[in-house]
Fold this protein.
Amino acid sequence: MKMSYIAVCFALLLLFGEAQVSTAVTCSPMELSTCANAIISSSPPTATCCSKLKEQRSCLCQYVKNPNLQKFINSPNARKVASTCGSPFPNC
């Protein structure tokens, strides 16, 4: 019984480890280019924009610190787009 418990725990550990590896995101601000129109013109974000925004969410704090991106990322429209997509900005 003890051996099967250890085997199950080991299997779960392997599965959990693989899930973390497969969800790694490469931070690339260009991935958010589909959101540019929504941010600049206040138009509703597209499904692609929302998908990319959710994918890049863990990178947003990094983008906020980039002087070239700050004016777009910190804009009220960018936060509105993120909120509309159901992916509010993290507290950086």
User: Anything to note?
Assistant: The chain has a mean pLDDT of 78.
